[in-house]
Protein: Galactinol--sucrose galactosyltransferase
Amino acid sequence: MYSSLSEGGTPQRFIIIDDGWQSVQKPEHVSDKMPYSRLNHIKENIKFQIDVEEGKRQEDPAKGIQHLVQIAKEKYNLKYVYVWHALTGYWGGVQPGIDEMKSYDSTMQYPASTPDAFQYMAETDSLSVQGLMNPKRVFLFYSDLHSYLVASGVDGVKVDV
Structure:
């Protein structure tokens, strides 16, 4: 896609890597409604890593999203690379009870939704339960996430509520 835009006289200057780059897992109990997955690691999922052994996470940042960012900037001359994430880390929040995310002390929370909000979001389970990090750990979470992204060459984030 980058090449065809450049060849057509409209080179891109930035890109936003949207939903799909993060490490997530679906909830254990899936209902008929659309379940929202929860973040289970700060780093990218293995689809965004190179030289991955079967099912094993690559811990070297140079073989993670940093590699993709480097290609985008060097080969395709993009000036900025942004990534997306949800305000709560991912649509269903942060997965509690797993070693990779224990620093954020997340718990499952049931929000009090207004009838109007539920009317427009009734097809999802997002209003029923979220993996929310401990408010005292929010700064640590964003610091860990954004520090990793900056170290990988990512220039900014697009955040959805």
